[in-house]
């Protein structure tokens, strides 16, 4: 692990690159910069809670993951590394040469799993590297994006295909998209191929419901998880306030999803962090300086919400806690 001091702006990236040449131990964080404050959302966050800016200038920010020691990992996808945020807010390079790792998950024994993008695959990174799946039905994945792992070892992940480019013509044969289930026996199943851009995934606290963000859609989807891991009963769970028409067409920008112990669902979207009850009732929106991409609970007792997006990392003290299980 190589240390990087806590800086803000492009200096963070420069310092990370310098750290790859070899540095000492992680330095304690300076006081985090206070950005905007949160609205009050009952049971979730007090009004006026500062949104701490932990760092900026990262080369891609994705996949936050809370660790048992209170630290949080996130990926710098384009920089090909994983960064660790210590409980005191200091930053250090946790792992390099990660094959474009995007989302992360933990196993019951501390194994680190990841969605890879170069090339697209689902893999275990630690303690040993091994690819678990790299394609389906004889065809490679397009651009695998997010994953969640259940307590029993079921893995659910998404492949939204290529990211739309503003002004680009729609291809005659767009890349296939998919929501997949990798069962405990290593068998891969295609659950749905008709979600326009399946993105973030998360499990309810009791792991009986799987939530899926559709970046191009107006609603978060939900599936019932059967005892053997199969997904059934697809339905619209909640409509997103961030749904609008942009340069690439209509969409909500729905990306990462996190769930708290009360079953509330937190979704990164065009509007910020949209919070819903376990029944899909909108509770409020936390606006951020930049559009969020992914989020996870972490820190002591999982009582802080860590959010990453557009090269920045944020932390918000909450009234609630994340689910007590490995991973997000």
From TrEMBL:
Residues 1-26 form the signal peptide. SUPFAM superfamilies: Calcium-dependent phosphotriesterase. Keywords: Hydrolase, Signal. InterPro entries: 6-blade_b-propeller_TolB-like, SGL, SMP-30/CGR1_Lactonase. Residues 61-308 form the SMP-30/Gluconolactonase/LRE-like region domain. It comes from the Bacteria. GO terms for molecular function: hydrolase activity. This is SMP-30/gluconolactonase/LRE family protein.
């Amino acid at each position: 692990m190589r240390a990087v001091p806590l800086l803000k702006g492009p200096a963070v990236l420069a310092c990370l690159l310098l750290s790859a040449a070899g540095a000492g131990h992680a330095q304690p964080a300076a006081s985090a910069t206070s950005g905007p404050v949160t609205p009050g959302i009952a049971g979730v966050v007090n009004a006026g809670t500062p949104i701490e800016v932990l760092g900026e200038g990262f080369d891609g920010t994705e996949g936050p993951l809370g660790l048992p020691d209170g630290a949080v990992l996130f990926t710098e996808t384009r920089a090909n590394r994983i960064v660790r945020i210590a409980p005191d807010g200091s930053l250090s390079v946790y792992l390099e040469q990660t094959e474009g790792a995007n989302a992360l998950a933990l196993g019951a024994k501390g194994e680190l799993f990841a969605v890879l993008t170069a090339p697209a695959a689902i893999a275990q990174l630690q303690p040993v590297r091994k690819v678990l799946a790299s394609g389906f039905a004889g065809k490679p994945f397009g651009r695998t994006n997010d994953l969640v792992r259940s307590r029993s070892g079921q893995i659910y992940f998404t492949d939204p295909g290529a990211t739309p480019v503003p002004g680009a013509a729609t291809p005659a044969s767009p890349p296939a998209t998919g929501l997949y289930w990798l069962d405990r026996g290593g068998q891969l199943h295609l659950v749905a191929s008709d979600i326009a851009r399946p993105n973030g995934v998360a499990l309810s606290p009791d792991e009986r419901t799987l939530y899926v963000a559709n970046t191009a859609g107006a609603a978060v989807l939900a599936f019932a998880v059967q005892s053997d891991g199969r997904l059934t009963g697809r339905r619209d769970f909640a409509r997103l306030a961030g749904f609008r028409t942009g340069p690439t067409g209509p969409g909500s920008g729905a990306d990462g999803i996190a769930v708290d112990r009360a079953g509330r669902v937190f979704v990164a979207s065009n509007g910020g962090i949209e919070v819903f009850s376990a029944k899909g009732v909108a509770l409020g929106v936390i606006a951020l300086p930049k559009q969020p991409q992914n989020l996870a609970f972490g820190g002591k007792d999982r009582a802080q919400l860590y959010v990453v997006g557009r090269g920045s990392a944020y932390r918000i003290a909450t009234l609630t806690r994340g689910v007590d299980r490995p991973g997000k």
